[in-house]
Amino acid sequence: MAKICAVTGKSSKVAGGYSNRVRATKFNPTGKVRKHANLQKKRIFVPELNRSVTVTLSTKGIRTVAKNGAYKTLKEAGLI
How many domains is the chain built from? Predict the structure, then answer.
């Protein structure tokens, strides 16, 4: 599965870890942590093409497809 959303372009990013002990003392840093986007493989039927397309989308990308329509959204993303 791809590590990037086809519609929104979301991917993973590096974020700082922050423990409760750091909050208490402002000392003892915890280092960096990689945060991954919530990516899901979806099979979307496109009525204009009369076929299904399988894409990897973030949850926000799935909502965008549901709101704007499959054909329009996937065409803007360059997947059709």
Answer: 1
What's the CATH code of the domain at 30? 2.30.170
Predicted structure pTM score:
0.78
Pure H helices in 1-80: 20-25, 59-68, 70-77
Query: CA-CA distance, 78 to 12, in Å (whole number)?
Result: 21
State pLDDT tens for residues 5-23: 999 999 999 988 777 776 6
- Domain with 57 in it: 13-77
DSSP track, 12-66? -EEEE---HHHHHHS-S---EEEEPP-EEEEEEEETTTTEEEEEEEEHHHHHHHH
Predicted confidence (pLDDT) per residue in 52-79, tens digit? 999 999 999 999 999 999 999 999 999 8
